[in-house]
Model the fold of this input.
Amino acid sequence: MVGHNKKRALITGITGQDGYYLTKLLDEKGYEIFGLVRRTSNNPFSRFDKDIPLYKKIKILYGNLRDSDSLKSTLETARPDEIYNLAALSDVGISFICPSETLDINYNGVGRLIEEARKLNPKVKFYQASTSEMFGRTNPPQNESSPFQPVSPYAEAKLKAHQDFIVGLREKENFFACSGILFNHESPKRGENFVTRKITLSLAKIKEGLQDYLELGNLDARRDWGFAGDYVEAMWMMLQQEKPNDYVVSTGVNHSIRDFVNETAKNLGLNLKWEGTGTDEVAKDETGKIIVKINKKFYRPSEVDDLLGDSTKARKILGWKPKTTFEGLVKMMTDSDLEYVRSIASDYKI
Ligand code: GDR
Done:
């Protein structure tokens, strides 16, 4: 009798923000966890630094979504029941600079992974990290029936993968594949290039005297920001359903980039006043010092203006709901960055 067979999960993109939270969740649920990791010269696992026991539980397999042979051997070792495809070129701004690489990873890479996975086990359950960016210019609120109007190479590649490999193979070949159409999700482990973390880290540094000012692009874009730790639960829930399907995952509340700056500043006790318009807009502190200004280099060639998710379907069918508010999220990120900045402040002052 094989009484204690643990479920096996393969997570691609395990070193990223969502990889960390999903690993934590699946570990709590008793999974055996395999992580596909791209070889890099520096430590890719820095997000696990404060959680070494969790890191030690991951069975690391080196490979790359751009290389089918590596995927084949990864899958042969992992023999997963569930695959969570979180690996991607995930920076929308960078995708304009590297469109071919973006397409190869975010579209062809998904195809390679699925092809190898199904050869080995046609019954494997597959989660694809799809994105609210696929809605692009579509007016809010957006749900599963809203039209897709992508405006970046990132979103175009993600949409093609969603249509061809997730919806397509599910409908034509009965493949158990789910798309999580996740709206922006953030945390203290968010990469520093994404706008939320850039804001909390920079304002914490400004507060502690380690940085002069923060430069941003478009302040008017609106995003529906949730907590990544809440969102990985929805990923797991999707694969536990009897039938595969696609789900929007969002909070249903959105804010502008300017609102995010203001909320962070409030947490840090920085009293900001905005002046000017367009590229001349600035935020000053009480002494009149400029804290935030615009740098055109952070504008995108084409912008997604207004994302606001309607996650009724996930709430009804999965029984999922977000636990963290916008205010709670900003506070969590600001507190964490302030603590981090204070811990490095002494090095800077030498
Ligand atoms: P996004 O996240 O593109 O929504 O994609 P990001 O945080 O990069 O941008 C959000 C909005 O902020 C505006 N913005 C800036 N963005 C960055 N990065 N840096 C700036 O200085 C800046 N100033 C203004 C942007 O123009 C944009 O409107 C994220 C990624 O995680 C995707 O992988 C994921 O699919 C979606 O969220 C859901």
Observations:
- Residues 165 and 172 are 10 Å apart (CA to CA).
- Residues 90, 92-93, 131-133, 183-184, 193-196, 198, 216-218, 221, 223, 257, 298, 300, 303-304 surround guanosine-5'-diphosphate-rhamnose (CB under 6 Å).
